[in-house]
Write a structure and sequence with these properties.
- By secondary structure, this protein is an alpha/beta fold.
- The protein has two domains: about 160 residues, 3-Layer(aba) Sandwich (Rossmann fold), CATH 3.40.50.12660; about 45 residues.
- The protein has seven helices and seven strands; from the N terminus they run ααβαββααβββααβ.
- The two termini are about 20 Å apart.
- This is 2226_t:CDS:1.
- Belongs to the peptidase C14B family.
Length: about 240
């Protein structure tokens, strides 16, 4: 959404970013190289993170429709320790777009991985079989449960190792994307809520900001915000870009 891009641009300038350092791709550009085609997006992402240095701060925003890119490989993998990246997504597939391993709830705690939740359900089903007297089925279930749980922990550990990063990476997105209209203009719900929250109070913790975004979205939309990170973070620390 072009309106989102203009709002984010204004927001970044107000927070110390220089317009000359920005790469902006929108559908209304006359220069083909500034239109957000897949090739152009990949090209400029690579250019953006080509020479990361200590204390560099990056901001990546995407608002619109489109397929998935291997953005973890493009945006996350090149970054080194001491580099900060803040990402805001208003798009389809935004829930898994960067595949960052640590997803935080509005309580400021790490959400349980799906594999562990499924393991708990399997354990409950196994216990019910035992109490219902299905002994043979119980024995088989215990074996299957033990195997699945072990595989789940192996997968989880592998994901943490491969998807984490020494750089400080934080992503704001919705579990599902939504188009919104504010003041007669089209906008992405996440972009709108983020800017509105920080316009009210720019000195918030990550936890406060996530809750504020949730409250703003809850007023009009069904979408639920998420915050994910490249490594465990202190949610009571001040939000910064």
């Amino acid at each position: 959404c072009i309106n989102d891009v203009q709002r984010i641009k204004k927001f970044l300038i107000e927070h110390g970013f220089n317009e000359s350092d920005m790469i902006i791709l929108t559908d209304d550009q006359k220069d083909y190289n500034r239109i957000p085609t897949r090739a152009n997006i990949i090209k400029y992402i690579k250019e953006l993170v080509s020479d990361p240095r200590n204390n560099d701060s990056y901001f990546f925003h995407f608002s619109g429709h489109g397929g998935q890119l291997e953005l973890h490989n493009l945006l996350v993998d090149p970054l080194s320790e001491g580099v900060r990246l803040t990402v805001v997504f208003d798009s389809c597939h935004s829930g898994t777009v960067l595949d960052l391993p640590y997803v935080y709830s509005t309580r400021g705690t790490i959400k349980q991985p799906k594999i562990l939740l499924q393991g708990a359900k399997n354990a409950l089903d196994t216990g019910l079989r035992y109490f219902q007297g299905e002994l043979e089925s119980f024995r088989k279930s215990v074996k299957i449960l033990a195997t699945k749980t072990l595989e789940g922990h192996v997968i989880r550990r592998k994901n943490l190792q491969t998807m984490s990063s020494v750089a400080d990476i934080v992503m704001f997105n919705e579990q599902t994307s939504a188009d919104a209209h504010e003041g007669g203009q089209a906008t992405g719900a996440m972009s709108y809520a983020l800017i509105k929250s920080l316009s009210r109070d720019h000195k918030q913790t990550y936890k406060e900001l996530l809750n504020s975004i949730r409250e703003i979205l809850h007023e009009k939309y069904a979408q639920r915000p998420q915050l994910s990170a490249s490594h465990p973070m202190e949610m009571e620390s001040p939000f910064t870009i």
